[in-house]
Amino acid sequence: METTGDGTGRTGAGPQPLAPDTSRLDGRSARAWTEPMTVRATGEGRYDVENGAGRTYRVDLPDGDCTCPDHRIRGERCKHLRRVAIEVTRGRIPAPGQVRGTCRGCGREGFVPEGGPDYCRGCRLESGDLATDRETGDAVLVVRVTADRADAVAVDGTGRPVADYETNAGYPRDDPVVEVVYPFDGGEPLADRRRYSFPHSRLAPRDAAIVDPGLGEV
Ligand SMILES: [Zn+2]
Ligand SMILES: [Zn+2]
Predict the structure, then answer these.
(1) Nearest ligand for residue 47 CA
(2) How far apart are CA 78 and CA 29, in angstroms?
(3) CA 106 to centroid of ligand 2, rounded, Å
(4) How many Å lie between the centroid of ligand 2 and the Cα of residue 41?
(5) What's the complex ipTM?
(6) Which of 167, 33, 27, 39 is nearest to 100 (CA)?
(7) Which of 128, 135, 152, 162 is spaced 20 to 30 A from 168 at the CA atom?
(8) In a structure prediction context, what are the per-residue pLDDT tens digits for the chain, which is 218 residues long?
(9) Is residue 135 domain-resident?
(10) Which PROSITE patterns match (predicted)?
């Protein structure tokens, strides 16, 4: 893309239209932007695209497939495929692997992983993330995010579910359990440290993530 002007990335021409200058696009791209279509995500990377005439085609975005004649017969990257890609890029519909949902962490409506847990990108914890224990302020390192509920997992050697601990009373009992270690105290290798189980919502993600190769596959 051509860069001009003051270096801020803006052209200085004031507000810009939503669609690109379609006169500079090829026909299929222009139609993808301008024709009335209704796109609905149906899961697993598939989308129903209804055109202005009420006809519905099915797009498989990861496979780059569409059921319309333009794609099936002529083998073109049709306007339906392009429209789905545009709407995903603009955040209007979920990307493959995501669904619309309410984030359990921040309560905002948005996109969450298709197979759960229901956390937005900003609230979701993954192995290798640093997080803050909201109860104590301690830094912890996420070793594993499990699919198990806090009221169904017993803390090692106690028989007592994670959710039953007093300090976890303020967090949903059906939260997924997250296993962590304390990375900043003691000299043991991280992989040898004792793991602790927390309800996901008790841990606030931090910006910085550290990845320790010593943890390996967990
Ligand atoms: Zn098509
Ligand atoms: Zn969130």
Answers:
(1) 1
(2) 8
(3) 4
(4) 21
(5) 0.90
(6) 39
(7) 128
(8) 444 444 444 444 566 555 778 888 889 999 999 999 999 999 999 999 999 999 999 999 999 999 999 999 999 999 999 999 999 999 999 999 999 999 988 899 999 999 888 999 889 999 999 999 999 999 999 999 999 999 999 988 888 999 999 999 999 999 999 999 999 877 788 888 999 999 999 999 986 444 444 444 33
(9) yes
(10) ZF_SWIM
